[in-house]
Amino acid sequence: MNEFVIDFPGGARVDAHFGPYTVKTDQPPAGGGEGSAPAPFSVFLASIGTCAGIYVLGFCRQRGLPTDGIRIVQGMEVDPMTRLVGKISLDIQVPPTFPEKYREALIRSAEQCAVKKHLENPPKFAVTTSVAA
Predict the structure, then answer these.
(1) What CATH number did the domain enclosing 48 receive?
(2) What is the DSSP annotation of the chain?
(3) Global confidence as pTM
(4) Cβ–Cβ contacts within 10 Å for residue 24, how many?
């Protein structure tokens, strides 16, 4: 999957198509949209927590640990000067029955998230225009 096709289905909606999938986005009414789908930035933020979740899920599956009652609560702090996200926190909440001996390893597994690694070592961007055929 090396290509995403982005299109504009109307209003403030912008959709991404890749493989057999479509990710729909929209702006909230305050931003000129209808709020019919998450805003692109919310999808970006959700990708961080869901990516960490894939690693937590894999860790639990490899050890035969149930995931019932496990959840990740993601928070963020915005820098008031830049108005950019300055810190993202992931709190992996486990039920009282979750084995204590696996808690640190669970954190290490979530830290392997590919989205997090890309943010720590961001790619370069090249934005161009071309005439569609």
Answers:
(1) 3.30.300.20
(2) ----EEEEEETTEEEEEETTEEEEE---GGGTS--SS--HHHHHHHHHHHHHHHHHHHHHHHHT---TT-EEEEEEEE-TTT-SEEEEEEEEE--TTS-GGGHHHHHHHHTT-HHHHHHHSPPP---------
(3) 0.89
(4) 14
5 in a structural domain: no
Gyration radius of the chain's alpha carbons:
18
Determine, yes or no, domain membership for 11.
Answer: no
Q: Which residue is listed with tokens 């019919």? A: 36
Domain enclosing residue 109, as ranges: 39-120
**How high is the pLDDT of residue 2?**
84
The series of mean pLDDT values per 10 residues for the chain, 133 residues long, is 92 97 97 96 97 98 97 97 95 97 97 95 95 89
Q: Does a structural domain hold residue 31?
A: no
